[in-house]
Automatic annotation (TrEMBL):
The name this protein goes by in its record: NADH dehydrogenase subunit E
SUPFAM superfamilies for the chain: Thioredoxin-like
Organism of provenance: Kingella denitrificans ATCC 33394
Protein keywords: 2Fe-2S, Iron, Iron-sulfur, Metal-binding, Oxidoreductase
Cofactors, names only: [2Fe-2S] cluster
EC number: 1.6.99.5
Length: 157
């Protein structure tokens, strides 16, 4: 199900923990699986759980709790906009509304061309840079007013 290269990366995660604490590697293992497959289908979660050596339900608990894991296909670019209070007070809600209008989709939807998925996110720990947007779970974009959003979307085109 996963390439040998990814299994080796998961092995590296597993090596970080004592043998009796393999469960601690599940977050990293799921992240690695998602990078190759684009999202975590139920059979992927079960496969990773088995590989790590934990019950599938324990992996499901992690995958369904954290919003960095995608349980259905997402666009090439996943845009997560923080709308928690600090960001909301500094334009986070407006940034989300602008993206909805600009992309023609709502939160939880993907553009027809499969390029963008828009997600409403919780605090990303960068309140001083509000409003913030997370690109593909890895790149923090700060001060995302309409002008900054237009610039970022142009870069992604």
């Amino acid at each position: 199900m996963l390439s040998a290269q990814l299994l080796q990366q998961i092995d590296t995660e597993l090596a970080k923990y004592p043998a009796d604490q393999r469960r601690s590697a599940i977050m990293g293992a799921l992240r690695i699986a998602q990078t190759e497959l684009g999202y975590l289908a139920p059979e992927t979660i079960e496969y990773v759980a088995q590989y790590v050596g934990i019950p599938a339900i324990a992996a499901y608990e992690v995958a369904t709790f954290y919003n960095m894991y995608d349980l259905k296909p997402v666009g090439k670019y996943k845009l997560t906009v923080c709308t928690n209070l600090p960001c909301a007070l500094r334009g986070g809600v407006d940034a989300g509304e602008y993206l909805k209008q600009k992309l023609g989709i709502d939160y939880g939807e993907t553009t027809a061309d499969g390029k963008f998925t828009l997600v409403e996110g919780e605090c990303m720990g960068a309140c001083g840079d509000a409003p913030v947007m997370l690109l593909n779970n890895h790149t923090m974009c700060s001060y995302m007013d309409a002008e900054a959003i237009d610039k970022k979307l142009a870069e992604l085109e």
